[in-house]
Amino acid sequence: MKFLLILTVTLLLAQFTPAMKCWSTLGTCRTKCQDSEVFHILCRDATMCCVDPKYMPSKPEPSNIAGRLGTSVV
C-alpha cells in the first residue's frame, strides 16, 4: 500500500515538473533523446538538447571552388 502511494505521488510530481527548454524553445533538455528526436547542442546543465528533426537547420552544400573555376587543385 505504501508503494502505491509513493508511485502516485511520484507520477503527479512528474506531471507538474516543467521540462527545461532549449534552442529557442524548439528542443527539450534530456539525458537521452527519444527515438523521434535528434541531439543538436548541449544544454546549460550538460544534458542534451533534443530537437525534432524537422526543426533542424539544413547542412550547407560543400563548396567546390576549384571545380567552378575550371582549375585543379594539386
UniProtKB/TrEMBL annotation:
Top-rank taxon, per record: Eukaryota
One GO BP annotation of this record: innate immune response
Tell me the keywords, alphabetical order.
Answer: Antibiotic, Antimicrobial, Defensin, Disulfide bond, Secreted, Signal
Domain Beta-defensin spans what residues? 21-50
Q: Does the keyword Chaperone apply?
A: no
Which family does the entry's similarity section mention? Belongs to the beta-defensin family.
This protein is called Beta-defensin
Q: Where is the signal peptide?
A: 1-19
The protein's organism comes out as: Catagonus wagneri (Chacoan peccary)
| Location within or outside the cell | Secreted
Q: Does the keyword Disulfide bond apply?
A: yes
What is the role of the protein in this entry?
Has antibacterial activity.
